[in-house]
Amino acid sequence: MDIYRADRLPFDCREELGIIFADGFTQWLGFFSKDKNIIAKAFSHSFQLDQFYVAVVDQKIAGFVACTNCYDKSLVLEKEELKKHFGWFKGTIAAKVLKKEFEAPFKNLPNNTGSIEFVGVASEFRKQGVASNIIKYIIEQTPYAHYVIEEVADTNLAAMSLYYKLGFTETKRKNLSPRQAKKLKINSFVSFQLNKC
């Protein structure tokens, strides 16, 4: 397994990132489409490759993790692309709602903090240490003293277990209203932090 910053690959990997993204995030994006292929195409334009790190196994993208400086965006959504794939109505809603969700600024973080975002592993490479290797690489290769992971679903036990194993600690829990919890099938979003020094 080799790990690279995505913009340093000799090819544009946005299409593969879109497929992995759709496989991992379709449950959250079901209002816009339940078809993973449509979600993959709708989001492939948005990946800012200089913010993503990828694991490559046998010349395939096995997984990805974004790491930003909490100011730059890892995803930049274009309304016209979303409308093209989701249709005018749902694409317009996606542009408004998801832009607010994915491009929201961070508040009250320590200086020199990196944000770990959008952890995704291709189904054929799951349970092979892909995500943990990428996150370890990010922590070793990026200059931040602190790392945050925001809003992990409390039902995502595999991800939470991984973050604890890597030394992250829970910093807050955002409990959902009963209506939201029933709709999303989770109780809360959990945030984590790791201090490197």
UniProtKB/TrEMBL annotation:
Provide the leader sequence positions: none
> Gene3D superfamilies in the record, alphabetically?
3.40.630.30
GO molecular function ontology, one term from the record = acyltransferase activity
A family per Pfam:
Acetyltransf_1
**Protein keywords:** Acyltransferase, Transferase
Query: Which PROSITE patterns would you find in this protein's record?
Result: GNAT
Report the residue ranges that make up the N-acetyltransferase domain in this protein.
Answer: 1-185
Q: What is its EC number?
A: 2.3.1.-
UniProt name for this protein: GNAT family N-acetyltransferase
Q: What organism is this sequence from?
A: Enterococcus xiangfangensis
Its lineage opens with: Bacteria, Bacillati, Bacillota, Bacilli, Lactobacillales
